[in-house]
Amino acid sequence: MARKILVSGLALAPLAAILRWVADAGDVTVFCVSALALVPLAWLIGEATEQAAEHTGPGIGGFLNASFGNAPELIIVLFAVADGLPDVVRGSITGSIVSNLLLVFGLALVATGEEDLDRRSLRTHLGLVMSGALLFLIPSVAGWHGNPDRHALAVVSIPVAGGLLLFYLWQTSLNLRRHRRRHRASGSHPSARSWSLPNALFTLGVATGLTAMVSEILVHSLEGFATSAGLSRFFVSAVIVAIVGNASEHGGAIVVARRGKIRLASEIAISSAAQVALFVAPMAALLSFIVRPPLPLAFRPVELATIAAAAVIVGLVVKDKKGTRREGALLLIAYAAIVIAYGFSGNR
Question: pTM above 0.90?
């Protein structure tokens, strides 16, 4: 029954497009329909990721999900940059990292129960997140005084972004090689009912394209929705946009976790957080010089503090190579506390 509802829900993507470009509906209606449209698309990406992981193993499967899922996130960010919403961009990046680490990983643990985790891989991703938070301090500290969006800070962000990208590509290549060797040594083979790898990748590509379209519609209705709902733009971007913009990773991780595949679910959640910090954010900063205006990676103290806190908390959870429902519940409580802090922090 749930599967039929999700399949039917795929029709919400073209409906969102009609409301935005044909019917010229209000921002609240467009925002809500767009957010709902991302849910079945997230389920589809989760299904395709699970099928791809049958061929590649959980480590590479999680990387595929994060990569396809974060493509819409980068698109959302670039549209927000072009619309002159730098605080929305930074809020979305912050919220994406924190929600993947605490909300998604927490829900995956609650759905699965006590299971073994790949501590080495997860700690590598968490180390990447911490590295990103530390390097973000370079333009951020200067942005705490004066205009945080001044051109000089955007220029300072260039070497930071370049360094993060190179570090991410190097670490990811090493991690993927390790996962490939491990999968080959395991001797596991896809089941007879699994999709072929090309079909899984094609489905991922189509679902990602639709998600990107819906995400663009979502961004253009964000300000109107925030005003009507009486919420700060930062809260909407760091909580609502971050969740729906990463719906593919969120939904994909929870779908596979409910099927007992916690290693794949944890790789999706935590590798996605690392990819946002060390790939999406730097790419947004560099590409902003093309789409204009240039985007400084100047985050507020509350943003950097919550990113670092989330990474440390998850690091403590994976320390013993085990994940439990109780630990998952604690991660969800930590996320709720951060959401409350975002609510009180207001706009910059």
Answer: no
